[in-house]
């Protein structure tokens, strides 16, 4: 049913950015004979999915579909839910370039044929692409994502992110920031260019808006160097010089810069501070040893050197800020010593997109579910190998 996807695609192109859900609803009803649709978007913590078309949906109705929608979101596969009235609710992942935005609900009069499900999946892909593009032209979907007000610092940090996950034939990458609504300086950035993945993780200095501003300067300096063709050394040195000449050494940013060659699994690294790399391989979690160099901006004209290590197919890398591995609530044992490794091993059968949440939930539990005292960032990279291969979990 390619004509159904084409009909919806045209409707989305013609709709204003804030009316995509309504345009999709009308087009899907006409193309597939649906009796109802809705769009559910993931919140900033990825702790729930929230309706866009019917935000006032009664709690009973919302909770009845929420568990099925969450199963679709987690598995990234269509889920069919038949009702006593013979109708069938089809839940489809809204995902673009590996970034999970939410779930599309399509209610049909009967259990659909496989071809109809495939057509609905294509439609969900078109809608996801449109939603991602529409974020620049409307606040509607961002409002639906937030369960509480963001601090000014957090607003800046979320706008600075490249996304929360991305996929490639050779890898799956995901990241998460906490505390989601008040995060200050911790951050991650990435860029995919052919067979190369550039990844940076920043351990922000300070708190609140000043930390967010410092991180924004460092991130944009590294992007400037990278987009001008500069390698890891040029990125680190431009960012370091920029931060130093802004703050004269009084402030600096601990940063880890990585570049993965997707053809052979070789990783080049500049370790300019405290973010740690841990590798999950064969059920064992080990820290990747890197020689730590000066944080960005500590001294004028600091020079950096590249180190290298390799990943094997099936390896999972975690990059974490000190808000994760050094967390020590009430002066107790640091989270990273044992508990973090346990959380990481528990993710072996999960894709990277789920694994970051598992580690963050472990951290929250370690803090007895109290608000985190420090920013925390977790980035997870699943290396599938040059051929791309199925699956996303570590061996």
Description:
The protein has eleven helices and 16 strands. The chain has helices at 2-14, 20-32, 59-75, 114-134, 140-145, 152-160, 208-227, 232-247, 322-325, 339-345, 352-366; strands at 36-42, 49-51, 79-82, 88-96, 99-108, 165-167, 171-178, 187-193, 196-203, 254-261, 266-272, 276-281, 284-287, 307-310, 316-320, 376-383. It has a six-stranded antiparallel beta sheet. Strands 2-1-5-4-3 form a five-stranded antiparallel beta sheet. α1 (2-14) packs antiparallel against α2, α1 packs parallel to α4 (114-134) and α7 (208-227) packs antiparallel against α8. The radius of gyration is 22 Å and the shape is globular. 46% of the residues are buried. This is PP2C family protein-serine/threonine phosphatase. GO terms for molecular function: protein serine/threonine phosphatase activity.
Features:
single chain, 395 residues, alpha+beta, Beta-Lactamase, Phosphatase 2c, domain 1, six-stranded antiparallel sheet, five-stranded antiparallel sheet, 11 helices, globular, disordered C terminus, Bact_Sigma-Reg, protein serine/threonine phosphatase activity
What does this entry show, briefly?
By secondary structure, the protein is of the alpha+beta class. It has helices at residues 2-14, 20-32, 59-75, 114-134, 140-145, 152-160, 208-227, 232-247, 322-325, 339-345, 352-366, and strands spanning 36-42, 49-51, 79-82, 88-96, 99-108, 165-167, 171-178, 187-193, 196-203, 254-261, 266-272, 276-281, 284-287, 307-310, 316-320, 376-383.
Helix fraction, binned, reads 25-40%
Strand residue percentage: 25-35%
The CATH superfamily label of the largest domain reads PPM-type phosphatase domain
Main sheet makeup? 6 strands, antiparallel
Low-confidence stretches: 387-395
